[in-house]
Design brief:
With about 270 residues, the protein is mainly α. The chain contains 13 helices and four strands. It folds into two domains: about 70 residues, 434 Repressor (Amino-terminal Domain), CATH 1.10.260; about 150 residues, no CATH class.
């Protein structure tokens, strides 16, 4: 993914901070002093020479007494963007346009669920909560790397971390109806646990080699963590932090992640 696609949101951010500074009638040096950076460092943000880090975003929001989301959200601008249609290629390529508003892909979600559950579903730690977090990081991490979600699921901000919305439940209900998936209640330590058990193997032609490799890496990295560990990790993720309670989590905020959750390889861009 090229830098233009990766930092498409930054123009919106720079425009907003310029407008806020002019409305406040303050200089770049005054703003830089207020947020604790050098004037040249702040000037580079207004000049769009580098992306902001999360600490700078928070301090600017406090300085101007606005919400963090209002500084970096480009939802209003997205209304005027052309609708993005999905046509599955033989293999996902980095040159595909970034999905502005991912939509759930039921058949693909079905195969991702079967693939993930055949891999880790039998592990004692993997109940419904862990599954939710694994899917979240699979999708968000892929979006950070490739600008696209694998399943297209929408996740909402819940107290204990991100959870998929009704599209997920609809696919699961259909899979149970066709004896492809079973849900049982078990005990994990002193807690009740809802486990999803696959009843068939996945049809891998729905997934590209790149997607399978990504899912395998995510499961190797996160598949042994328990619900508390994965919830704690999701609470450090910028998309979850910025979203309001009970509201959808915006995929595009992965580009503002900190080192706590970012999976982007170092490409020489100064952060």
């Amino acid at each position: 993914m090229n830098n233009h696609n990766r930092w498409a949101e930054i123009m919106t951010f720079t425009t907003r901070i310029k407008q806020l500074r002019k409305q406040a009638g303050v200089s770049q040096e005054m703003v830089a002093d207020a947020i604790g950076v050098a004037r040249a460092t702040y000037a580079s943000l207004e000049a769009d020479r580098r992306p902001p880090n999360l600490d700078e975003i928070h301090k600017l929001a406090e300085y101007y007494e606005v919400s963090t989301a209002s500084l970096i959200s480009d939802d209003a601008d997205a209304v005027n963007e052309p609708e993005v249609t999905y046509e599955r290629p033989q293999e996902v390529s980095d040159i595909l346009p970034r999905e502005i508003d991912p939509k759930v892909k039921p058949e693909k979600l079905r195969e991702v669920l079967l693939y993930v559950l055949n891999k880790v579903g039998a592990k004692p730690n993997v109940g419904e909560t862990v599954l939710y977090k694994l899917l979240y990081f699979i999708d968000m991490d892929y979006y950070e790397k490739h600008g696209r979600s694998i399943t297209g699921l929408t996740y909402i901000h819940n107290t204990f971390g991100p959870s998929p919305v009704k599209d997920f439940r609809a696919v699961v209900d259909d899979m149970r109806k066709h004896d492809e998936l079973d849900i049982v209640e078990t005990k994990f330590f002193n807690n009740k646990q809802k486990k999803y058990l696959p009843q068939k193997a996945p049809d891998l032609h729905q997934l590209s080699a790149t997607e399978i490799k990504h899912i395998d890496a995510e499961l190797a990295r996160l598949g042994d963590k328990n619900a508390t560990e994965l919830s704690d990790l999701s609470h450090k993720d910028t998309p979850w932090i910025v979203a309001k309670q009970g509201k959808p989590i915006n995929y595009r905020f992965v580009f503002y992640r900190t080192t706590a959750t970012s999976v982007r390889e170092d490409d020489g861009v100064e952060l």
